[in-house]
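[09:14] KT: can someone run the structure on this one? pasting the chain below
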Amino acid sequence: MGPPLEWCEESKHYPLQGAIFYLCLFAVSGTVIYRGFDWTSNWFLWVFITVICVAMYFHLKKDRVIAGARWIQQRDEWASTYELIRIRSTTVGLNRAMSIRDTHGNKFVLVLNATQQNPLLWNLVYNGIAHSVAHGNCDISKAARRILKI
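[09:31] RB: done, structure tokens below
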């Protein structure tokens, strides 16, 4: 589909903060379950906690949105922005999002806040959405049309 032209990713501190959060969560849980700090002498728990924290660090590090001239991708999900057939308004947590589907059957949930942080990325995506809607092959809900101002 072409090379990536723009991307938006969380701050570099976000994955580290997530790993530290899980470390604290496990420490508090171990203290509550064992009713004290006796769990700190168990080497198996330290190995388990370390593996989980490292896994979460690398999992959160992959969280970025990438766009090319005609496509958008996040992790393993992607969609062709110029061949959209369905757009629906939805939410992801407290953020507005668009659920989009292209002619190839690919589904993608586009979090608007994350995408609009990079204006060049948003321009690539919005132009593809506007093109799909303008050519009449795209079924777009009233809520999505109002939010996207199309």
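[09:33] KT: thanks! Residues 10-61 form one domain.
[09:34] RB: yep, looked fine to me
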